[in-house]
Amino acid sequence: MAGLKKKRRIQLIVIGAVLLAAATALVGYGFRDGIELFKSPTQIAEAMPEEGDRFRLGGLVKEGSWERGDVHRFTITDMNEDFPVQFAGIVPDLFREGQGTIVTGSIEGGIFVATEVLAKHDEAYMPKEVADALKEQGVFQPADG
Amino acid sequence: MSIWELANPRRFMALSGRILPGLSWAAGLSIGIALVWGFFFTPDDYQQGSTVKILFIHVPTAFIAINAWLMMLVASLIWLIRRHHVSALAARAAAPVGAVMTVAALMTGAIWGQPMWGTWWEWDPRLTSFLILFIFYLGYIALWQAVEDPDKAADLTSVLCLVGSVFALLSRYAVLFWNQGLHQGASLSIKQEDNVADVFFYPLVLSITGFVLLFVALVLLRTRTEIRLRRVRALMLREAR
């Protein structure tokens, strides 16, 4: 670099930056399926994974679908398609109906058997009193993760 | 005064020496006030209870971790194009500070993730690119050490910085490209309405301000050290002759 004229150095940097951006875009495009952390119920409805293939399924816990117990049963929805899930274990604190969740496991007999359940939250941090007041007025919009 | 006058090491030393004490006090005060305010005088979150308060460390450290790299990028480009040594040394000085902030953000993120998400770590696009950014910090610091000739080291690390910027930008914007991650969106954005409630927002902004001041103060301090090291080396070479 030291032996080059200033104009030449700028040209080199610009060419390098453009190539780098192109490489990044290509890698991002090529791996777009791998980079996605989870599949939505709509995606598995379109292309059903093989039984026993491990993958992650994500969406909202459908209102009224959660049966507690040693084995939790609930339905994951993306408001378009649903998928039933069962999980034997302890769910995180934030896990609740209407909340975003990501489960890891595989499909067995038409049911997603999860070995791990994660809860998603969004960036709308709000004091408890405010959330309660909003709920009372009926204008509270629950986080959709 | 043009900013390029700071490229003169003597001018840089004079100015940075003058503003450094005030800057350090301002940084300490704002971080102190912001953390006490955030930890003890804010209400609990409606979903997360008091766990949300780790926000006041996690967000500023992550903010600095990403922006420190972008500052290094600008300084590296100034070095590559205009060959100002102070600029190259400022980039070198910022790297360890940024690396420490990255570790702090990774750790607070894990501590926050365990009770809330249910996991310490997940290979979410945003988390992964942030981890890669940390590895780039380590590689950047190592490359400076590995090359003997200072100008050549500055050239090579500048190119590495350019490449690493991909991951600095990705860890901020991955949420936009791949919507399906675990990590939530940015806590701060231009349109504040649907974001953090005001009671959390103001101490958070103060905390970020404090961390920015701390970062600037540390980089100035470390750049001064690097300039002095160069001077000492030059003197020793002259002595040896």
Automatic annotation (TrEMBL), chain A:
- Where is the protein situated, by its record's location annotation? Cell membrane; Membrane
Q: What does this protein do?
A: Heme chaperone required for the biogenesis of c-type cytochromes. Transiently binds heme delivered by CcmC and transfers the heme to apo-cytochromes in a process facilitated by CcmF and CcmH.
Q: Which InterPro entries match?
A: CcmE, CcmE-like_sf, NA-bd_OB-fold
**GO molecular function list:** heme binding; metal ion binding
Pfam families to which the protein is assigned, alphabetical:
CcmE (PF03100)
Q: State the protein's name.
A: Cytochrome c-type biogenesis protein CcmE
> Into which family does the record put it?
Belongs to the CcmE/CycJ family.
Task: Detail which positions bind heme.
Answer: H121, Y125
List, in alphabetical order, the GO biological process terms annotated in this UniProt record.
cytochrome complex assembly; protein-heme linkage
Q: Which UniProt keywords apply?
A: Cell membrane, Cytochrome c-type biogenesis, Heme, Iron, Membrane, Metal-binding, Signal-anchor, Transmembrane, Transmembrane helix
| Cellular component, GO annotation | plasma membrane
For the Cytoplasmic compartment, the record's topological domain ranges are: 1-9
Q: Which residues cross the membrane?
A: 12-31
Primary localisation category:
membrane
Q: Which PANTHER family match?
A: CYTOCHROME C-TYPE BIOGENESIS PROTEIN CCME HOMOLOG, MITOCHONDRIAL (PTHR34128)
Q: Look up and give the membrane topology term.
A: Single-pass type II membrane protein
Extracellular side of membrane: 31-145
Automatic annotation (TrEMBL), chain B:
Protein's membrane topology: Multi-pass membrane protein
Q: Which UniProt keywords apply?
A: Cell inner membrane, Cell membrane, Cytochrome c-type biogenesis, Membrane, Transmembrane, Transmembrane helix, Transport
Renumbered to this chain, the signal peptide range is none
Q: According to its UniProt record, where is this protein mainly located? A: membrane
Q: Which InterPro entries match?
A: Cyt_c_assembly, Cyt_c_biogenesis_CcmC, Cyt_c_biogenesis_CcsA/CcmC
Q: Which GO terms describe its molecular function?
A: heme binding; heme transmembrane transporter activity
Ranges that cross the membrane: 20-42, 54-81, 93-115, 127-147, 159-179, 199-221
Ligase keyword on record: no
List, alphabetically, the Pfam families matched: Cytochrom_C_asm
Span of domain Cytochrome c assembly protein? 4-183
Asked whether the UniProt record includes Oxidoreductase among its keywords, one would answer: no
Report the subcellular localization: Cell inner membrane; Membrane
**GO-annotated cellular components:** plasma membrane
Q: Which domain of life is it from?
A: Bacteria
Q: Which family does it belong to?
A: Belongs to the CcmC/CycZ/HelC family.
Outline what the protein does: Required for the export of heme to the periplasm for the biogenesis of c-type cytochromes.
Protein name, per record? Heme exporter protein C
**Gene source species:** Oceanomicrobium pacificus
